[in-house]
Every structure is written in C-alpha cells, then in structure tokens.
Amino acid sequence: MPIGAIACALLAAIAVIGCASPAYPDRGARASESVAPGAVPAGATVDAATEDRILALVPEHISRQDVEQTLALGPAPRIIAVQGSLPFVTMKPFAQFLIAMGYPASRIRNPRDGSYSYSGYSDSTELAGSLAWYYEREGMMPILIGHSRGGMVVIKVLHELAGEFGDKILVWNPLTGEAENRITIRDPITGAERPVVGLKVGYAAAIATGKLPRMLLGEWTMLPRLRKIPDTVEEFTGFSIEWDLIAGTLGGAEPYQPEGSAAVRNVTLPAAYSHIAIPMTEHLAVHGATRNWISEYVPGEPPPAFPANLNVDATNILHAAELWYSIKKHWCQEAQSLIRAKRARVAAGG
Predict the structure, then answer these.
(1) What is the pLDDT of residue 15?
(2) Contact residues for 135 (Cβ-Cβ < 8 A; gap 6+)
(3) What are phi and psi of 235, to 5 degrees?
C-alpha cells in the first residue's frame, strides 16, 4: 500500500476515535494540595535550611543528588501531560518515568480524577483558565507537555494566553470542572491583580506534532499557528521524528519558530523512534545506567559516556533526557521564585 494511503487510513481511524468520549486511566481520589488565594501556596512551608539549599542550586545544572536530596523536599510546579488522539496511547508511562526520576506524583496527577494523562481533546480555553487557577493558589506556573495532538493542544493554549482567540479567558476550576465568574487572578508573586490573558508559562513541549493530521482532521485555526510559538512561554522544545508517517514529517519537519522572545529549541529524533511508542519511557528510570545518563545529560554539550557492552533497553532515551533536563531546570526556577517571594513577603511584614 502506498505511504499516502497508509497515512490516510491511520488518520481516518484517529478521526473516528476522536469523536468518542476520551478515556482517563487510573482514576483515583482527588489529590489537590491547593489552598485559597492569598494563603501560603502549597509546598511553600518547607524549613529554612531546605529553602537555603534550593536557592543555592544552579537551575541549568541539577544533579541526581540535587533532585533526591533537595528539590524533592520543596515545592514543585504541576505538570500537565496531554496525550494524543488515540485513547490507548496515554502519557501515563511518561508520568511514571518522571515519578521514578524523583518528581512528586501529586504534582502530575489530575486532581479531579487522579489520572496521569489529560485528554488530547481537552478544551484549550479551559486549560488556559486552569493554569491561572493553579498559579494563583500554588504560586508556581504549571509545565505543559503534549504528545501528537496533545502537542497541538499545548501550543493552542499558548496562543490562547496570547489573546489570539479572544481578549478574555475565564478562570477555570479544575476541581469542579467549571468556570469561575472572573477573568483576573491575584498574582501570588507580585500581589497585583492581573488578567488570565498574558500569563506566561515557564516551559512547554510538543512531541511528534504534525501538520498533516491538522489538515486531515480539519483543525484549520491551528495550521498557521502550529509552528509559531508566542511570547506566553519562556522556553519551548519541539520534538519531531524523521520520516514520521503519522505526523506527516516525511523528509523533515518544519521547525518551530518564536514569534518574539520565547526560547525555542527544535530536536529531531531518529527515524527508529515510534510515533505511537514515544511516551514509553518508564523503563529508562529503572536501570542505573540509563537513569544516570539521563541525569547527567545537558543539551548542547557532549553526551555522557554510556557503558560499553551493556545490554540495556535505551529506547526513547534522547527525548526523555531532553525533557528531564528542562523539567528539572524549571522546577528549580519555579521553586526559587516562590521561596524568594515568600521571604520578601515575610520581610515586608505580610
């Protein structure tokens, strides 16, 4: 069968599945640690010695020991991991990888249903409003990571925050699943009232998100925006796979480009990577060799040496290492910002 026919068949199946209600794995009790606006955000009550150690960390160089002995003891931003079109390909394996690497499970779980993976058909306006809700109560901006169609949702959220789909966004309560009757929040860092539109995410990533599915599924509003990253994110990583049949990156993907100040990094993964299996990363945190390699990885620097003649599964290791590096960095930056704001508030008698 010709490649084009195979691609159309796969995308037709995705379109049919997309009409069904999204499935959420691993439902559980609510696990929110949120508090009311104006109170001390969740995770901000660690002892002064731990706070000092967190403030002493260098975000660009976080070791495995830094994670286990320092970062994991303090506050952490939520991670919203958005899956693609196929309901059986979730972000749960990636979430389990992060947890095994030391990230707090409670900051990855959806507080409403206990799942580790958000539907690829999540409403982008609601997600944008929920970012504001989390930020106001927890003092840390969530991290956004999406796979396939989920990557499109992540990018659409960034454009929502930039005001491209409307100049007002309602605050969205992720616990009740309902909008609140307001379009502003009290900024937990500055104390000023500000609109949801214009909020900036610290880090976001899109994995194997292609233009071909957007065309075949009629997602026209995102076609001209899919590779343009607005200023509503500080750092963004776009991952593409060489000769990705499903994403339509046959012969090379169009690179992501910043519209302004966003730091955008494009990472091309080898053709041996699987579009469907790319979230499968949990095994990389189990074996000491792959875990250490990922912990020591720094983008743009020569990769750490990998032990020779070691029979270990290193599938998906490159994008896992890239993501873990960026997550550690922004985890540290968000924690430091929150601690500094808390101390400034105390010093001011607040």
Answers:
(1) 38
(2) 141, 142, 185, 187, 188, 199
(3) -135, 140
Per DSSP, 350 falls in state -
In contact, 127 and 145? CB cutoff 8 Å: no
| Residue reference for tokens 């292609």 | 210
The CA distance from 53 to 71, in Å, is 9
Q: What are phi and psi of 146, to 5 degrees?
A: -130, 145
Is residue 42 over pLDDT 50? no
- DSSP letter string, 303-314: PPP--TT-----
What pLDDT is attached to residue 44?
54
- Determine the Cα–Cα distance for residues 98 and 43; give it in Å rounded to an integer: 18
Strand partners, 118: 82
The one-letter amino acid at 212: L
Contact predicate 138/74, CB 8 Å: no
Contact, 321 vs 293, CB < 8 A?
Answer: yes
Give the pLDDT confidence score for residue 213 in this predicted structure. 67
Inform me whether the pLDDT recorded for 36 exceeds 50: no
- The CATH number of domain 3-301+308-347, selected from 1.20.1250.20, 3.90.950.20, 3.40.50.12780, 3.40.50.1820: 3.40.50.1820
Q: What is the pTM of this model?
A: 0.88
The answer to whether residues 336 and 183 touch, using CB atoms and an 8 Å cutoff, is no
Q: Cα separation of 292 and 172, whole Å?
A: 39
Backbone angles phi, psi at 152, to 5 degrees: -65, -40
pLDDT digits (tens, 9 = 90+) for 236-287: 999 999 999 888 887 777 999 999 999 999 999 999 999 999 999 999 999 9
What is the token pair recorded at 347? Answer: 């010093």
- The residue extents of the domains of the chain are 3-301+308-347
Closest CA to 212 of 232, 237, 241, 183: 241
Q: What is the mean pLDDT of the chain?
A: 87
Give percent of the chain with pLDDT exceeding 70: 86
Residue 56 CB contacts under 8 Å (≥ 6 apart), including other chains:
none
Q: Dihedrals φ, ψ of 207, to 5°?
A: -115, 120
Residue 34 confidence (pLDDT): 40
Give mean pLDDT, residues 51-56: 98
